[in-house]
């Protein structure tokens, strides 16, 4: 005999659980890979899913009843909320999602979160190539774990930002996770803002942030994928930093290559705005993470000054 719950779902013609899971996974992709627990505290997300599924007002508001035996009272709750919770639990059993009880231990927040298996499924459902997840700022449980390890790494005076054993040509699942963990750790630490100009903006679909996690010692020189060798920069400042138009001093102030003053006045213009000179102000301190333990390491900055910033000037003088 069908359960009371099943009878209510059928009576209301609510969607099948599999359909709700599909909509859930696509919604998690849109929301960056995680959302707060469902219910009154996250009604906006619950309503968004109901809109996507085309639920009527009756389907959304009909309340089921159950007896809380220990307390001897009658409890009511929306049948739609129960179906949503059942679908999320089923997805968690398939390891497509992680239950809030687990994310609480990891991040200190009760949130549902995508897994790597879940993001692959969500990308497949939306027609986005799975390979593009390396570029998407979508958090999965595994990526957040990698970022958490990086953020909690011990800060050492003798830190070496170069990893001689790093093989730039060999790509593994673990190296891809660490790369995404590095990006997540950096953009989280800097609140998704460029540390030089402060730009913070996402794409209209929220699937991409303008800010990038930049290596201070570049990847091509075997720079380590950790927060002590990272800094958040917009695309313009990332390029400018990588090619040596500016560097940082140990007090995190900007130092500009003096060859900038020799450039033709027409160089660096965006229309009439001088993007190169106006957005690279010398002697100004960059915006840093609130946690000092996540500041770039002085050894990384020193490496950049000696090997990227001064290298070009040495070549010019030679």
Instruction: Give unreliable regions as ranges.
Output: none
What is the rounded distance between the termini?
A: 88 Å
User: N-to-C SSE series?
Assistant: HHEHHEEHEHEHHHEEHEEEEHH
Largest sheet: 3 strands, antiparallel
Percent helix = 40-55%
Please tally the helical runs, counting DSSP H or I stretches of 4 or more residues: 12
Given helix and strand content, the structural type is: alpha+beta
If you average the pLDDT, what whole number results?
88
Q: What spatial form do the alpha-carbon principal axes imply?
A: elongated
- Number of distinct beta strands: 11
Strand content: 5-15%
Report Rg.
25 Å
For the largest beta sheet, what order do the strands appear in spatially? Answer: 1-5-4
């Amino acid at each position: 005999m069908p359960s009371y719950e099943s009878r209510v779902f059928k009576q209301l013609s609510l969607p099948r659980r599999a359909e709700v899971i599909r909509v859930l996974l696509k919604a998690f992709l849109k929301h960056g890979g995680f959302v707060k627990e469902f219910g009154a505290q996250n009604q906006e997300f619950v309503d968004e899913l109901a809109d996507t599924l085309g639920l009527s007002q009756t389907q959304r508001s009909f309340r089921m009843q159950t007896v809380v035996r220990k307390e001897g009272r009658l409890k009511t709750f929306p049948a739609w909320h129960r179906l949503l919770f059942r679908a999320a639990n089923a997805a968690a059993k398939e390891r497509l999602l992680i239950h809030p009880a687990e994310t609480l231990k990891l991040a200190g927040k009760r949130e549902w979160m995508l897994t790597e298996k879940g993001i692959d499924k969500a990308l497949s459902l939306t027609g986005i190539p799975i390979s593009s997840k390396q570029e998407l700022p979508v958090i999965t449980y595994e990526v957040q774990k990698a970022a958490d390890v990086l953020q909690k790494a011990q800060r050492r005076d003798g830190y070496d930002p170069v990893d001689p054993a790093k093989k730039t040509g060999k790509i593994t699942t673990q190296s891809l996770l660490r790369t995404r963990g590095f990006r997540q750790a950096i953009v989280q630490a800097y609140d998704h803002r460029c540390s030089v100009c402060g730009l913070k903006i996402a794409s209209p679909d929220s699937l991409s942030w303008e800010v990038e996690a930049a290596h201070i010692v570049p990847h091509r020189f075997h720079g380590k994928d950790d927060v002590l060798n990272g800094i958040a920069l917009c695309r313009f400042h990332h390029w400018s930093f990588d090619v040596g138009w500016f560097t940082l001093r140990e007090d995190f102030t900007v130092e500009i290559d003096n060859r900038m003053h020799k450039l033709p006045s027409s160089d660096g213009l965006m229309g009439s705005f001088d993007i190169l000179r106006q957005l690279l102000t010398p002697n100004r301190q960059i915006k840093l993470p609130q946690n000092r333990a996540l500041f770039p390491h002085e050894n990384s900055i020193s490496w950049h000054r000696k090997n990227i910033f001064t290298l070009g000037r040495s070549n010019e003088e030679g």
